Amino acid sequence: MLEVTDLTKTYGHGDAAHLAIDRVSLNVARGELVSIVGPSGCGKSTLLRCVGGLIGPTAGRVVLRGEPVAQVPAGLAVVFQDYGRSLYPWLSVRDNVALPLRRTTRSRAERRKAAGASLDAVGLPGVGDKYPRQLSGGMQQRVAIARALTADPVLLLMDEPFGSVDAQTREDLEDLILRVRRERGITILLVTHDIDESVYVGDRVVVLTPGPGRVRADLPVTLPEPRDQITTKELPEFVRLRTEVSRLVRSRDTATLP
Amino acid sequence: MRWLWRVVVLVAGVGAWQLWASGAKSTFFPPPSAIVARMYHLWFSGPAAHLFLTPDATGNILPSLGRMLAGLAIATAIAFPLGIALGRSPVVTSYLNPLLQFARALPVVTLAPVFIVLFKLGTQMEIATIAFGTIWPILLNTIDGAATVDPQHLETGRAFRLSAWQRLVWVIIPASLPKAFAGFRLSLSLALILMVFSELVGSSNGIGYELSNATNSFDMTLVWSTIVLLGILGYLLNALLGGAERLVLSWRTSGGQE
Predict the structure, then answer these.
(1) Fewer CB near the last or first residue (10 Å), C or N of chain A?
(2) Do B251 and A147 touch (CB under 8 A)?
């Protein structure tokens, strides 16, 4: 589904050059949810932007469904951390959610219908006519998720999507993501700095080293489905995984996967 | 209740002026009652079919407003697209900046002789003066607006595969509009000043022309009438612009937070 091979990104040139990620390789199967964790400055966001074709890598390649990614590919959707800056304040919630169809769907009625369905799917019916500013932070991030769903993506990239909401809302949004993935079979790459979250939502957790980011570990998560905020998090397996990930994230050891 | 106090202050101010002026009996400061009577008689006692405008009003006020709006329209038609283009081209703008700052700093009234030679006395020269003077606030503010579009907004547009044209129309222009409006507001008050000035220099009709005639014939009541008329026009135009701004930028203000 998604193959990332030796992906490297250097910002700037000469003495000012900064190596953000270094030969990152990663394979993601269809329908898989892969969490990417690492200390701040490990190039998580850079990795995500390269995978999404938003920035070009310095070396290495990204292949999505057999096609090399050179620019933003069809079937991609992104949820950014800062919903306040990624939703357009001058568009109504409905027009924001319909945005991915601007280029592909000529009929306004069809776009509105699709936007309405996406809003229903994230549990926000009836807010289409409001402006994003009129909604709470958690609701705005739901709108951003609805917008991603409108794109009917095969690959969803999420860049610390729940980093700026309160704990309760965060758990609700994590469960929302698990639900839409179950219903639609979307492949998801989720960048987070929250270790519990990476284990709770992930099928796999990829741990990056401090910058420049390299893959330090790639752990399968063997927790039973469906996951539950209370019962899953009290399982010994959950505790074992979160401890292991935590240790890997904090470790100053520079050893990486071969 | 606040509006009531505003009326009270206004009435008290005019009343004080009336008392003082009728007591002083100065030829240079006629009382407001005389000014209002003169304004009514001269401009607003026409037939209902002409919206109560007298021939003197249609022959002077309307041409003045027409030239002012024509000058502003030309300035906006040049400055807004150019401002968007320059705002998105930081390198070009950095080269042009000294030139722009120099042109903006020129007191446009000193250029009037140049425009008189270029366009001869009359409407063309007047419109050119207004257009040249009002172009800078709109241009510089639009450049600023377009240059400071949130990078996250632009990246979102690319992530959802909007075309370059769609990013211009749905992202860059709406994001630049608040600052462009701020520039337009400055230009509007500048346009009123330049309209009067250019008509004082040389014109065969217009409010400035009436003002100049009144001064030459020491008709102080008429001088004050035109001054009050200009004040009223400035106020009305500003109110009109405020209304347009609320309409176009309704996303900034409408509705409350939930």
Answers:
(1) C
(2) no
